[in-house]
Amino acid sequence: MARPKKDQSQQTAVQSSTNPSDPLLECFGYILSLYGLQPDLQAMLSALPRAQNSMIQPHDLEMLAKELSINIQIRRMGFSGLPSLNTPAILLLRGQKAQVMLPSETHKGEVFVPGQGLVKQNSETLRDEYYGHIITIAPPGAKTRHIEHMWQPKAIDWFWKPVLSYWPQYAEIILCSFFINLFAVAMPLFTMNVYDRVVPNFATDTLYVLAIGIVIAFTFDFLFKTVRAYILEKVAAQVSARFDRDLMAKFMDLAYEDIGLSVGAKTNIFRELHSIRDFYSTRLVPAIVDVPFFIFFLLIIDLIAPTVVWVPALGAAVIVALTIFVQVPINRLTRKYFSDMQAKSGHMVETLAGLETTRLFGAQGNALFRWQDKTSRAAQSARQNQFLLSVAGNFSTTVMMLVNVFVVFTGVFAIHAGELSIGGLIAVTILSSRAMAPIMNIAGVVSKMKQSRDALQMVDKLFQIPVPGQDGKPKGAKGPFTGNIQLKNVSYHYKDQSLPALDTVSLSIKAGEKIGLIGQTGAGKSTLAKIIAGLLQPETGNLLYDGFSHDTIHPDELRRYIGVVPQQSFFFNSSIRDNIMLGAHDISDENFRQATELSGLNMYIEQTGQGFDSEVGEDGRFLSGGQKQAIALARAIVRNPQILIFDEPTTGMDQALEQWVRSKLTPYLEDKTFIMVTHRTGLLSLINRLVLLNKGQIAADGQRDKVLEQLGGAKPESTTNARI
């Protein structure tokens, strides 16, 4: 195991990347610094699902550790076990406090206390405050006495690890199932004894005892079934919440081009993930647990009537054989069902999003026809799939009823031969039905298995897509960035397109330089802007910020220093303030005021009467084009980034608002690196260098006026009046 390095400068480094008011985060950062890791934790926190200004919780550290590809474990440990620790550990203390206990052989009884640094340990005070839990952290390659969870999982790891992490609950489910099946024997035995002993002799004392016993058995049976159902639903809800969070986080980390799915298809993935969760966590486990009790019930039947036991055994074999036989057509129909449902979901979201356009151009009839076609195909696939499952289920039910018939039929001959009593026949009939129940359940589970497995594999393909910045290599903080950017032979190719969007582009941008990107439609302007912004990853070549390769910088850290106005901005159904802040926790009032003034939002706010609490509607439907662009502009500069990338920043603005923005941007951009995609001549005063792109390559690069002269003095409108 690596021995931590003791360095007095570590506390300063930790406090520079963490918030001292968060003791747990500061402890986490300190341990990372011991191993030579100093990531920008504040930047990474912005990607965590937590309430604004809330304290860091242990589960937040687990997610941070996952992104850093380091090993972490939260476990209970008594106070007496602390001296035996041979690795740095965070001790959770009462009052939401924490401190780091260090190995005694390296630090001689010192502990790290947030805000104080290394101090001598006070055992008595620590004993009173210790909460009983520790968090152990180890760098990549080390162990923390648990399975390593690296970001790049093995196949289906993302699914099975959360599911199997609830093995204590599954053990409780197995125990409940054991008693439930054990109590199932009570009713047959009660019936057999009543018919064979109580009725012939009118033994009322025995009847009372048997009745009390069966009531007690049924009471416990009810309790165990209730407990099992509660545990199953609780596990299912927790697993579902974790899957939903992980899937949404995955969508947020991946570019649209990497996923290649429409919004409707993504929505369908969430729906399928819920069905997978229900199958594996609530149906599969009880079905598997109950299967061994089929043998148990057969043994009980064999003890009562050996000549009858072959009937349920044969019935079970027939049901299993049928289940295996129907898997071939079920597999074929399941694939078609998934394909049609994906198409239906994608078309539904697309149609709902474009209702206004549909009405404007009188295309309701065509839209309804296409919707009807998609729904008809999906309904037909669902009907065929469900029909086959129903046939298999009905056949199994018929076999089960025939088992009961032949049990009675065979039992009559056994009674005539003196091998079985009437009470025994009734008991065997009940037991045979109970024995067939696990087989019926497992048959239903197997029929659903293919559908769930296909859905699981579909979702797994998404989880296996590499996430930029999460390649298993810890990334230390590189910022603050001055704005030097260099592209070396960068190429990018969109899926389903024969020609590259960028082809071996090399470009050097100095800190504080102001650059304009121009070119015809499809030239690669917006693609280049997205790559510089970190939204797309170069397929070949390299991209450097202040000399650091892009793949050595954590994406969350990079985004703190880059402000982007994209070609098309999205607006959330919330207030103007929320759409500007977007959950940021560290924006000062001065930065917010500056952003709203520079973007011209203040002029619009004065007209609303509600200030920045005014609602924008779904995707900004309550806003005009200029107001949307003003919010997008304020959103990009509110964090006061050093690098600004604007793609047509004044689209939709009137002349007065555009002049206001231009006049305010000129002094604001003085010391910042500025990259702008534009075809408006009025904005060329903001830049001093032009880069002309043509078919994904740089056709011209130089001082603004010289490039315009090379273009024959043509105005930008005539050469770049469209965007990609």
Task: Annotate the secondary structure layout.
Layout: H1 10-17, H2 23-34, H3 41-45, H4 58-68, E1 71-76, E2 89-93, E3 97-101, H5 104-107, E4 110-113, E5 117-120, H6 123-129, E6 130-138, H7 157-164, H8 167-183, H9 186-201, H10 204-253, H11 256-259, H12 263-290, H13 292-304, H14 310-325, H15 327-353, H16 355-360, H17 364-416, H18 422-463, E7 485-492, E8 502-509, E9 514-519, H19 525-533, E10 540-545, E11 548-549, H20 555-560, E12 562-565, H21 576-581, H22 589-598, H23 601-608, H24 625-637, E13 643-647, H25 655-668, E14 673-677, E15 689-694, E16 697-703, H26 704-710, H27 716-719
Parallel strand pairs: 9-14, 9-15, 12-13, 13-14
Antiparallel strand pairs: 1-6, 2-3, 2-6, 3-4, 4-5, 7-8, 7-10, 10-11, 15-16
Helix pairs in contact: 1-2, 8-10, 8-12, 9-10, 9-18, 10-12, 12-15, 12-18, 13-18, 14-17, 14-18, 15-17, 15-18, 17-18, 22-24
CATH architecture annotation name of the largest domain: Up-down Bundle
CATH class of the largest domain, please?
Answer: Mainly Alpha
Total discrete domains: 4
Provide a count of the helices.
Answer: 27
Q: What's the arrangement of strands in the largest beta sheet?
A: 1-6-2-3-4-5
> Could you describe the largest sheet, including whether it forms a barrel?
6 strands, antiparallel
Question: Can you offer a commentary on this structure?
Answer:
The chain is of the alpha+beta class and 724 residues long. The chain folds into four domains: 129 residues, Cysteine proteinases (Cathepsin B, Chain A, Alpha-Beta Complex); 307 residues, Up-down Bundle (ABC transporter transmembrane region fold), CATH 1.20.1560.10; 162 residues, P-loop containing nucleotide triphosphate hydrolases (Rossmann fold), CATH 3.40.50.300; 70 residues, Rossmann fold (3-Layer(aba) Sandwich), CATH 3.40.50.300. Helices cover 56% and strands 12% of the residues. The protein contains 27 helices and 16 strands. The strands form three sheets. The protein has a six-stranded antiparallel β-sheet with strand order 1-6-2-3-4-5. Strand 10 and strand 11 form a beta hairpin. Helix 9 packs antiparallel against helix 10. The N terminus and C terminus are likely disordered.
